[in-house]
Amino acid sequence: MPNPERLSTSNNRFEDLRRSNQIYVDHTDLLYEIVRFKRPSFLSRPRRFGKSLLISTLESLFSNGTEYFKGLKIEKLWNEKEQGRTYKVIHLDFSSMAYTSPKDFDLKIYEILYKLATKLDVDMTDPKADYKADTLLKDIISSDSSNFVLLIDEYDYPLTHSLENKELFESYRQYLQGLFGA
């Protein structure tokens, strides 16, 4: 019987689970089926069903290849098909940002993307609209489109936290529609 001390109770970071030898149910072969098509994917699960762990797992795979996947099903698949390839990962967690309006939310995303764009020496277009994160995101991705992966955790956070304010909800909905369209 597995040691109960190896069960994770609150850890949602894949690399931490693997480093501390905690129990991890290996469904990475299914994960490979999702990522191998290299197209946008939307994954939705109920609350407390491991979305953040899934995002963390994807981030580790794309950033580090199979470094933390030793002995898991995806190790062989990734190394055979991707030749151990890694990608530049943009990970946005909408629940980790403090904001009060779509304009403020856009500014938080822009700040994160601006740091990345500066680090990568990306040519940045002067944004023409009120919201500018989507323009910068397009600039970053188009600078090397085959080498970027965009992961968004808690994508619906602005919406679920403005349900009681119809006007604010609608403004977040419109903002997110434009951002996700980018």
Structure report:
The protein is mainly alpha-helical and 182 residues long. The chain is 47% helix and 7% strand. The protein has eight helices and two strands, in the order ααααβααβαα. It has helices at residues 14-19, 28-35, 51-64, 73-81, 102-119, 133-143, 157-160, 166-181, and strands at residues 88-93, 148-153. It has a two-stranded parallel ribbon with strand order 1-2. The mean pLDDT is 85.
Brief write-up:
Helices cover 47% and strands 7% of the residues. By secondary structure, it is mainly α. The radius of gyration is 18 Å and the shape is globular.
Core attributes:
182 residues; two-stranded parallel ribbon; 2 strands; 47% helix
SSE topology:
Layout: H1 14-19, H2 28-35, H3 51-64, H4 73-81, E1 88-93, H5 102-119, H6 133-143, E2 148-153, H7 157-160, H8 166-181
Parallel strand pairs: 1-2
- Provide the residue-averaged pLDDT: 85
First-to-last CA distance? 49 Å
Round the Cα radius of gyration to an integer and report it. 18 Å
Shape: globular
Unreliable spans are none
Strand order of the main beta sheet, please?
1-2
What is the number of strand segments? 2
Instruction: Give the proportion of residues in helices.
Output: 40-55%
Decide which structural class fits the backbone: mainly alpha
Helices and strands, in order, run as HHHHEHHEHH
What percent strand?
A: 5-15%
Largest sheet: 2 strands, parallel
Helix run count: 8
